[in-house]
Protein 1
Amino acid sequence: MRNLKFTVALFTTLTLFGCESLHHFTINPREPGASGQGVAYGFKKTVEISLNGNTYSGTFVLDAGRVKTYISNSTATLNTNASATSGNNTVYGTGFGQAYGTTVGNTFEQGSGNGRLLATNAKGDAIRCEFTVNLSRHGTGLGVCQDNAGKQYDMVVLD
């Protein structure tokens, strides 16, 4: 039982804290110019973008899923028949037991949705993006970005 508790605790820790969800994307200018690359860190909700020799850092929000509640009912039944003999005497016994339990929990189901990000560089320049992503399809999606100078970019979420 002790090993089972340790395994469950280790799995939970790795799932919640050790496995960062990464999403890579490119930003391509609509007019002639250099393309950029970015990475979104899912659990931290942060983003880093390299574009035109600058590094932008910021945050993003994403509405791409739903929380599903589940209820699980279970019953365990135990029937035992036992006998014990001592000399010429035999004793018979019957045991019966039943346990009931209900578990209620929540799971997150990934799906499609919309997101927005805002990132700035050390000089104070900003870039904003709006995008649609499908997390059930490895996180691919499309979007549009605009920097504070008004230049527009097409965003492609790769994974």
Protein 2
Amino acid sequence: MSETTGNNLVTVATYPEPASAQVALSALEAAGISGFLQGENANGLIPVAFTARLLVRAEDEAAALEVLGAQDASLEEVTAAELAGEHVADSDLVE
């Protein structure tokens, strides 16, 4: 899914809403991976017309995808538990 830009940056994810993009960027930064969002402000103005792209340096792509994959897995666990009416503690999500 990654797309390389002319300045050695790759798109590792796209988001339809700025809040989700910010959460993903925060997860990367917490893991020590620098990144930035492109199109986030335009997305806030006309959400149906734009997406926010999360970009990282090409050499950080694999690590970024791993962090984002772990984040998605944690969110899926919480959602499944919520649907089942269970309570999930933060400590249950840490491996």
Protein 3
Amino acid sequence: MDATHTRHRINTLLQHKQDADVKQAFQSCASRYDAVIKEDVPESLQALRLGNYKFAEGGTTDAAFEAKSCEEEFRRCKSPDMNRVVLCMTSPSWPRPLFRQS
């Protein structure tokens, strides 16, 4: 599961939500995941290809920030489980062998 899957799930859930607070939270999360998918992930992958591991790590940090910000949008309600997956995968405790230099 990844950010694209999470974004798709957010869109699906957004179509069925009537509560204004929940709908606003989903819309904000959708925008945040667009940034992850269109900017953070491609920039990180490019940095990995070029061997710029610190810049790649910065991209995953940005993705984690967006996932955490999405989680915070749901203070008054429950966030989608997929957001927690992305948040966990981008946390500093997640094993990141891709960022180790050989």
Protein 4
Amino acid sequence: MRYAMDFGTPTVTYRKTQTEAEVSRLFCAAVVSKRFRDQLLQDPASAIAQGYNGESFAFSAEMMERFCSIQAETLSDFAAQFLAHEMPLRVEIPIPVGVH
């Protein structure tokens, strides 16, 4: 995850990585299509390999292992298990001298 900070304004901008964008596309497809969602829950590897609505997904072997290790009956449980394996995010924000 990448963040950009401009000290002139109190704004933090988040830019998605390619993998995060693919994960978002996968979950969006599962939300809008019961058929895709059911297939994802039953056989993640097959669902991802077949894609959705003519679109394919591009995941690393490590990410595919992560998806395939999930055993869930609902999309909510699938998402929770996926997020449980996320690496903790550590954000360091430099504070200029004299700011309290």
